[in-house]
Structures are given as structure tokens and as C-alpha cells.
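Q: I'm building a small set of examples for a reading group on sequence design. Run inverse folding on the following structure and report the sequence directly after it, with nothing in between.
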């Protein structure tokens, strides 16, 4: 491809997505948690939830390719979080423990720093426009809020 040829939207979406995934994986693994576990912790920060509710809420993330050696289902990730003492299980409901909440707070600072780094040099207005544009394109392609696919 000539240096001055403009690459299509799909190229940039896939590239940025893979770079974000790679950065998340490296940063979170240093702290003993997977990206999917971090997502589960975030969901539980909103309040207790059943395994089924967590599976539905995080379905888009569990549809992605699973890194080698990582659990492949929400229940496997939850089991590790329960075992680590970050999540408590009572009956069919899961909730964050104090330890889990403290860990999530530290992890959130790391993720916020990564997000800040990835958007350096992008104005708040440009960022908001990019997100709104991608949301509109997803809706044009059949996506609806609170659904996992078009």
C-alpha cells in the first residue's frame, strides 16, 4: 500500500482493538487478574449479581477470542475471583468483598492511566465525536442498546 493511501475504517478499528487488548492483558496480568475478571469486578461494583446476569452483561467480551491459558467462561473467571477472596458467593449471587473493592480501585487507576495514554493528543470533543460516530454506525448496522449482537 502506498504511504499516502488512506487505510479503511475497519483497519483502524481492528488495529486499535488489538492494541487495547494487548495493553490490557499485559497491565492486568502484572496484577494477577485477566481483562475479563476486571470486567466482572466492574460489573459487581454496581451491586450483587447472579452468574446468569453477569454472563448476559458481559457477553460481548466473552465472545472474543480467549488468550491461551485463560479460562473461557464467566463461571471459570468467577471461581478464580471467589478463590482469591475478591468476590463472595452467597447462593446464586456474587458480590465484591472489601479486598475485591480495594483491588478494583487500584486496577481502575491503572486502566484510567492506559486510557489517558491511548487518547493523548485527542481533544475531548474529538473523542466524544469518535465514540458517538461509532455508536451511530453500530446502530446503522443493527446494534441496539442492551443487546449483545445486531
Amino acid at each position: 500500500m502506498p504511504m499516502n493511501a488512506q487505510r479503511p475504517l475497519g483497519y483502524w478499528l481492528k488495529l486499535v482493538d488489538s492494541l487495547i487488548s494487548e495493553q490490557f492483558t499485559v497491565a492486568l496480568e502484572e496484577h494477577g487478574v485477566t481483562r475479563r475478571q476486571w470486567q466482572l469486578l466492574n460489573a459487581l461494583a454496581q451491586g450483587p449479581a447472579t452468574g446468569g446476569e453477569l454472563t448476559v452483561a458481559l457477553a460481548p467480551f466473552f465472545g472474543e477470542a480467549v488468550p491461551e491459558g485463560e479460562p473461557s467462561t464467566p463461571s471459570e473467571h468467577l471461581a478464580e475471583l471467589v478463590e482469591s477472596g475478591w468476590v463472595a458467593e452467597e447462593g446464586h449471587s456474587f458480590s465484591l468483598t472489601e479486598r475485591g473493592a480495594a483491588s478494583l480501585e487500584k486496577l481502575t487507576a491503572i486502566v484510567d492511566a492506559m486510557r489517558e495514554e491511548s487518547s493523548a493528543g485527542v481533544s475531548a470533543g474529538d473523542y466524544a465525536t469518535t465514540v458517538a460516530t461509532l455508536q451511530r454506525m453500530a446502530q446503522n448496522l443493527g446494534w441496539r442498546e442492551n443487546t449483545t449482537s445486531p
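Residues 123 and 129 are 10 Å apart (CA to CA).
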